[in-house]
Task: structure prediction
Amino acid sequence: MKRFALSLFLTADVCLPAAAQTTYTINPAVLNSSYWSWFYPTWKCVRADGSSCGAAELSNPYFKQVVILPSGFAQSDIAAFWTDFDKTVALITNPASAGSSWSVQRAGQVLFVGYFLPGGALGTEAATFGGKVAPHPIRGYALSLSQAAVYAQIDSIRYWTLPQLRPFGAAVLFNTFQTPVTANAAPPSLVNKPFGVAKF
Result:
């Protein structure tokens, strides 16, 4: 009897004259990325092919971890950060863009861990890691940040969120389209740390 009543209700609900049916439209203004930013992850781990990885891979010393963090991305830029993260992973591991580099040869052994940290615009006090595009005496502009802040943040992530985190390398993505900008890195031997920090 309940099934009959339910099917009768559904039939009556669907079989109304066209003029009596209500049409719903979505206002594009409510599709603002800030509303959807809560649906994006704070962190994710992916392999070179884009497939996800988890605690088992992160705990396995066979895999080398590369941590990618943002600077200059606000909370509303979370979608842009994850798009740039995915593009970066593809560029680093694709032979068409990275040739025969180590990251291409060992693509199956590298795990990319992205972690989103919102902050202010580059060059402001609120910028994550104090990131800014600074004048360079020879090459136009260079990317600059507080390396100590990057190492401290990675330690914090390891302590609070990902105890399996043991980076082989770290990188910070800058939210800028300014040109000409020289991407740069601090190798481990220069900073006396087990891994260096690339800025791009």
Residues 94 and 104 are 6 Å apart (CA to CA). The radius of gyration is 23 Å. Residues 1-33 have pLDDT under 50 and may be disordered. DSSP finds eight helices and nine strands in the chain.
